[in-house]
Amino acid sequence: MTTAPERLLTVDDLAVSYRTRHGDVHAVRDVSLHVDEGETVAVVGESGSGKSTTAAAVVRLLAPAARIERGTIDLLGRDVVQASPRELQAVRGLLVGLVPQDPTVSLNPVKRIGDQVAEVLRIHGLADRRAAGIEAVEALRRAGLPEPELRARQYPHELSGGMRQRVLIAIALVARPRLLVADEPTSALDVTVQRQILDHLDTLTAETGTGVLLITHDLGVAADRADRIVVMSQGRVVEAGTPDEVLGSPREAYTRQLLAAAPSLRGARPVSVPVALDAPPALEVRGLVKDFPLPRSGGGGTLRAVDDVSFRVPRGGTLALVGESGSGKSTTARLALRLAEPTAGQVLVGGRDVSHTRGSELRALRRQMQVVYQNPYSSLDPRWSVGQIVGEPLRAFGVGDRRTRATRTAELLDLVALPVSVAQRRPAELSGGQRQRVAIARALSVRPDLVVLDEPVSALDVSVQAQILDLLAELQRELGVTYLFISHDLAVVRQVAHDVVVLRQGRVVERGTVEDVFADPQHAYTAELLAAIPGARRPLEPATAGLVAGGER
């Protein structure tokens, strides 16, 4: 007779609100869910749906302004809601582990990695200083960190984002808790690193029977990793079931909307406009090389970040540069924008060599090429109004007078589907999607020939992401603007690009139309990137694209 799995967590009728100057905001309403031994339950939804607040309530790490209005949280027979601080200290780390979203702010920057992992064991009296240090190294090894003895002696700033996330996993699992709460543990990571970390989580939890409450906005991740999916919207659970039930035959319109917006699940859509094979290049780079000097304290020498990169972007088309962090794609974009000086090679804009342009010519070139950065939270000046931000390039280039600039700003806001009233607001008063629309409006203000989009949607939820991608396609159709699209997410690239160039360690390993590269990758690295796209258990449709840039593969 098979023994039923033990119930680890039961959340029943949970309601959480936040106190604000304008009254209480009800973030979670009537939420009920459970997690059994060895089970992964994914909670999905947009920003503001209440999923992270639910996770914080489970470990009682809510913000000071938050309060649990009603409901129960039962963790292995313990009442978390009524637990005292001393009781919570005995629960956290020992019975429940937490993997927070952002490793940059979740690790102590002045404390060695090994000490931060060992601290959990020492707090709970599971090991003395020496034994805790040894076990910390083993926990780092189990979390998949290379050279764990070395990593244990390092500080957070010496590790990559993926390594820091593995450290958080080691901290969460070092005491072998019965339940793991993972709040967007891979949302900021490349797809291959994301897959490696989720694979490690699967392995580690399977070995110990740990249950996982996985918070994510990525339905592809939920499809691949979860035994059950809970869909939240506006603080409520709107649907729950197995991945096949929720993703295969969703009952609720909201779930269908999330599915339609998920780039890894909805398949490819036609890109904005077909581009002729013989279209002249808006941008061409030839044999680009960029070397960076290494510090003398480490032995000196140089690091070659970009190595003989060549491609062309036909006017009115979209070329995607893809690769993992460290592949050289952002450095290549900076060289193309003339924000950095190439060590060797040429940059041609409209057929003119601008590789070493200086002074007034470089200033004029800036008007032809604009950029939209990854993070809309940090790329806009928080002190300025939206109207000032969008109109700033017009003032900088002396375009028109105050009245015509105000008119142009209103036109640009309308172009990106924002009301004119937004012009009086500041970035902090806008959502992430609205801020990215402002950044796009600003980039288009001086009517550039080329817009470089550096990971423009990676920090956004899938539904907002879909809106921005649709907007970019519409703008390309209306204005004929050319895009150089930088991304590590091939599911996104598949929707927006005509052509793709794959970079690895600064070199081009594959190039061609999106259709050809996705259907028949010629390089093992490209195949690895494609295999890492979340949602692989659901077959991807073939891409539809159409022009060749940068030569044959």
CATH class of the largest domain: Alpha Beta
Compute the number of strand runs: 20
User: What distance separates the N and C termini?
Assistant: 58 Å
Largest pleated sheet? 6 strands, mixed
Question: Quick one: CATH superfamily of the largest domain?
Answer: P-loop containing nucleotide triphosphate hydrolases
Strand content: 25-35%
**Widest sheet: strand ordering:** 6-7-8-3-9-10
Secondary structure topology:
Layout: E1 7-20, E2 23-36, E3 40-44, H1 51-58, E4 66-75, E5 78-79, H2 85-91, E6 96-99, H3 103-106, H4 113-123, H5 129-142, H6 148-153, H7 161-173, E7 179-183, H8 191-208, E8 211-216, H9 219-225, E9 228-233, E10 236-241, H10 243-248, H11 253-261, H12 263-266, E11 281-293, E12 302-314, E13 318-322, H13 329-336, E14 344-349, E15 352-353, H14 359-368, E16 369-372, H15 386-396, H16 402-415, H17 432-444, E17 450-454, H18 462-479, E18 482-487, H19 490-496, E19 499-504, E20 507-513, H20 514-519, H21 524-531
Parallel strand pairs: 3-8, 3-9, 6-7, 7-8, 13-18, 13-19, 16-17, 17-18
Antiparallel strand pairs: 1-2, 1-4, 4-5, 9-10, 11-12, 11-14, 14-15, 19-20
